[in-house]
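Pipeline run #58 for the internal structure catalog. This entry was flagged by the ingest filter as a single-chain record with no existing model, so it goes straight to prediction. Upstream metadata was stripped on purpose; only the residue string is passed forward. Reviewer on rotation: M.T. Logging verbosity set to normal.
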Amino acid sequence: MATSFENIAITRDDGIVELRIHHRGESAVWALWGGLHRELGIAFAEIAADPDARVVVMTGTGDQYCAEFDMDVEMPPMSAATWNIIHNEGRNLFNNLLAIPVPVIAAVNGAAFIHAELPLLADIVLASDNAVFADKAHGIAGVVPGDGVQTIWPMLLGPNRGRYFLMTGQEIGAQEALALGLVGEVLPAEKLHARAWEHARVIAARPDLANRYTKLLLTRYLKERLAAELDQGLMLEGMAILASLPSS
């Protein structure tokens, strides 16, 4: 039986699986504990195991993709055990997304300030003209950028620009993202969803094995980089957080 999610709506239509993040039916927010951090890895794993999936469309709700934290969620006291849960969920976010064996299309429908690198790991990335990309969860918040962002952003932007981006919280608008190669198309917000599904239908009509083997080839490098760097980054991020706690 498919998992019931509080922050993800999943629909299926003739082999196309749409995953839409939200918060109570409106734009998604990122909880400091649980929430999308936990649910996305589970959802990605279930989609990866779906033999009928031919293409995935990943998108948001409203006029923001994910730009704010859900401050109503209470975290348990930080400890090694708490961080172990965060570590495992962080691994699942990336590994399970890249384990989806069919093409993934991301439609970024607005500001993406928290884990914006996740939709950028899709095989085709579309953005609305009001989309903005940034990392507001790490460097400028005093947190080590070790949960995958340290690999993805320097790879996409180049080493120097990537470090600048992560350490300053720089915002990159849709047109600049297009010029930098972060996204493949920029569209008016009202046309974004239809364009994503247009791509999905075209790709779904192709031979399934060709799609799956193409995905396998084009994501091999990403998987290798994350396999080499994700666990160490999560460990260093956790060590810095635990070291900052008051002594008992």
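catalog note: Helices lie at 35-48, 80-98, 117-120, 149-157, 159-168, 174-180, 189-204, 208-243.
catalog note: The CA atoms of residues 33 and 86 lie 8 Å apart.
status: ready for reviewer M.T.
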